[in-house]
Each structure stands twice: as structure tokens, then as C-alpha cells.
Design goal:
With about 325 residues, this protein is of the alpha+beta class. Helix content is about 45%, strand content about 20%. The strands form 2 sheets. A 7-stranded antiparallel β-sheet has the order 1-3-4-11-6-9-12, with helices on both faces. Strands 2-5-10-7-8 form a 5-stranded antiparallel β-sheet. Helix 7 packs across helix 8, helix 9 crosses helix 10 and helix 9 crosses helix 11. The chain is globular. The two termini are about 45 Å apart.
């Protein structure tokens, strides 16, 4: 999809609507729900290797991908849409799916569908990602069974994918149009895991894809429980029903240990809080305890080893620098 002149800012007006509709013509037929002069659209497209993503904020509209359009041009790809604000209804012939914030929908460019971005009091925002069919590490019959299935973006693999897409949508303007292919690989793995869980479970995933997706899930679990001093490699392994040795192998494949990754995440959270002027009067030992460090002395040693200065000195320097910049 083309960025056209819709990359930055919300554009509006009759000419802008017809220009954008022309840009979308190879993919779908688009019609506004109101007057063309009232139509508003903002689109930002990103490429991560061969993975294409887009963030759209728009007024109410309807769209259709017809058999005729598929016959004229089909990139033969799967796509997932995450609704961030507002609502839309998608009908792929198997039934209607209502997308509300934090919900996901899987589709295929090779199948007809139609949709309606709901008419509300504000603009709707949604984020999509498109992966060429040959790149998805799943049997096609497995992937095809996920088409039209609604997913929750609040739990399981859906929450992981939703989190990544939400971050991309928020930071879309900070990415170059051609982004990091490694991020594209992450999106492929998460989409494959989402499709697999909706059909045959993770048994259908290739071993490498399963390992990478499991690692992402484990990392998300760790980040959600950093405040728990009982968060140990053994507790992480038990929570994911895997052996401790397999957990260690997953992280060793990334060139790190489970314990060091947990410690680094905790230290980063503590460093963030120590840099926050609003937390100037929160004692250092309380910040340490907040992020799972049971002993203040052990926290100070770990912080000094990681950042070269004790936490109290770090706080003084960081806050002093901020005051000087504001003068």
C-alpha cells in the first residue's frame, strides 16, 4: 500500500478522499459513509523486510475486496487487523465479526471480504500487518482455518501480538518507511503462533518458531511479575510447564541467562523510577523493593555494576541534569 501524502497528519476534503480511494483501488473498493468533504484519513505504511504494516485513522467508511480485484491482483498474503479505537464490522462470507478495541481479526488477500468502519463521534484507529503466504511457517491448511476467526488481544499470544502492534502504531512516525527486517521476523512468528493456537495448537508450528514464540511469551510473563521477589528461573519454568533446563536453553540461544535477563529488566525499571522527578522523595530502598530486590545492599551492588554509579548518585546526577536543561 502506498503512503501517498497520507503519511503524516490527518488529511481531509473531497480531493483527499478521492486521491486516497484511487491509491487503494488495486486492493479494495472504498466508499465514504458521509460527505466527501467531511472525510478524514491518516495512513502510515511501514515495511519490515517483506512484512508490510500500516496504521490508519479514518472517518466512517465501507470497503470491499471482490473476486474481480483478487483476479486482477493478489499478493497471496495473510493479514491481521488490530482495532485500537472505534469499531468496525468485517464479513468474509462465513459470518460477521465485530472488531472493538483490543480485538484482532485474521484475513487473506485471496478471499473476498467486506467491512464497515463504524460511524461514531470520533475517528477510528486500526493497525494491520500483512505477511506473504510462503513466509508463514505453517501448513497452508492450518493457516487457512484461522481466516475469519476473531481473537482477543488481551490474553495469550493475542496479547503478545497486540502489544507489539500497539507499540508500532504509537511510534509509527518514528520508524523509517523501511524498518528492521528482524522486527518483521518477530511479527511472522507471532502471527504463526496466533493462527496455530486458533486451530491445531502449537503442535503445527515449526520447532524454531515455537521456541521463539515461547521465549516472547516467557519474557512478557517476566515483565508482568518483576515486582515479585519470588520470580526465579524455577518459578518461570513452572508457570510455563517446561523444564528448567529447557528454559535455560531458550535463553542461551539468545546469548544470555534467565537470571541475568530478569535482573536487567528489574534494574531498568528501577533506573527509570530513579530518573523520575515525581519520585524524588521515594526512598531508594522502596524503589528497589518495588522491583523485586529484597535487599537494598544487593540492589546497590547490582546497580553500580550495571551503570557504574550507586543508585543514589545516579538519581542526583540525572535529576540535576534535568534541572539544568529546564533553565
Amino acid at each position: 500500500m502506498s503512503n501517498a501524502e497520507f503519511t503524516r497528519g490527518v488529511t481531509s476534503g473531497t480531493g483527499q478522499f478521492y486521491h486516497w480511494r484511487e491509491q487503494m483501488a488495486p486492493y479494495m473498493h472504498v466508499n465514504r459513509s458521509g460527505q466527501a468533504e467531511d472525510f478524514r484519513i491518516r495512513q502510515r505504511s511501514l515495511d519490515f523486510g517483506l512484512v508490510h504494516a500500516w496504521a490508519i485513522t479514518s472517518s466512517a467508511m465501507t470497503y470491499r475486496r471482490t473476486p474481480e480485484l483478487i483476479g486482477q491482483f493478489d499478493p497471496e498474503a495473510y493479514h491481521v487487523t488490530l482495532m485500537l479505537r472505534g469499531a468496525q464490522v468485517i464479513d468474509d462470507g462465513t459470518g460477521q465479526t465485530v472488531l472493538t478495541p483490543h480485538s484482532l481479526h485474521a484475513g487473506s488477500t485471496s478471499r473476498p471480504y467486506r467491512g464497515c468502519v463504524a460511524d461514531g463521534h470520533s475517528l477510528s484507529t486500526y493497525f494491520g500487518v500483512l505477511v506473504p503466504r510462503p513466509l508463514l511457517p505453517l501448513p497452508q491448511r492450518t493457516a487457512d482455518r484461522a481466516i475469519g476467526v476473531p481473537f482477543s488481544g488481551r490474553e495469550g499470544v493475542g496479547a503478545l501480538l497486540s502489544g507489539v502492534l500497539t507499540r508500532l502504531a504509537v511510534d509509527a512516525d518514528s520508524y523509517p518507511t523501511s524498518g528492521d527486517p528482524h522486527l518483521g521476523a518477530v511479527l511472522i512468528d507471532l502471527m504463526a503462533a496466533l493462527f496455530a493456537c486458533a486451530t491445531e495448537g502449537e503442535r503445527s508450528l515449526e520447532p524454531e518458531t515455537h521456541a521463539r514464540t515461547l521465549t516472547l511469551r516467557i519474557q512478557a510473563f517476566i515483565q508482568q511479575h518483576l515486582d515479585d521477589p519470588r520470580l526465579t528461573p524455577g518459578a518461570v519454568a513452572a508457570a510455563h510447564h517446561i523444564s528448567l533446563s529447557y528454559l535455560h536453553r531458550l535463553f542461551q540461544a539468545r546469548g544470555e541467562t534467565v537470571a541475568s535477563w530478569i535482573r536487567h529488566q528489574r534494574l531498568e525499571r528501577a533506573r527509570r523510577d530513579l530518573s523520575d522527578p515525581a519520585q524524588l522523595f521515594v526512598p531508594v530502598h522502596r524503589i528497589a523493593s518495588r522491583w523485586g530486590f529484597g535487599h537494598a545492599a544487593a540492589f546497590s551492588r547490582a546497580f553500580r555494576d550495571a551503570y557504574g554509579v550507586p543508585p543514589m548518585d545516579f538519581r542526583k546526577r540525572r535529576l540535576s541534569r534535568g534541572q539544568n536543561e529546564n533553565r
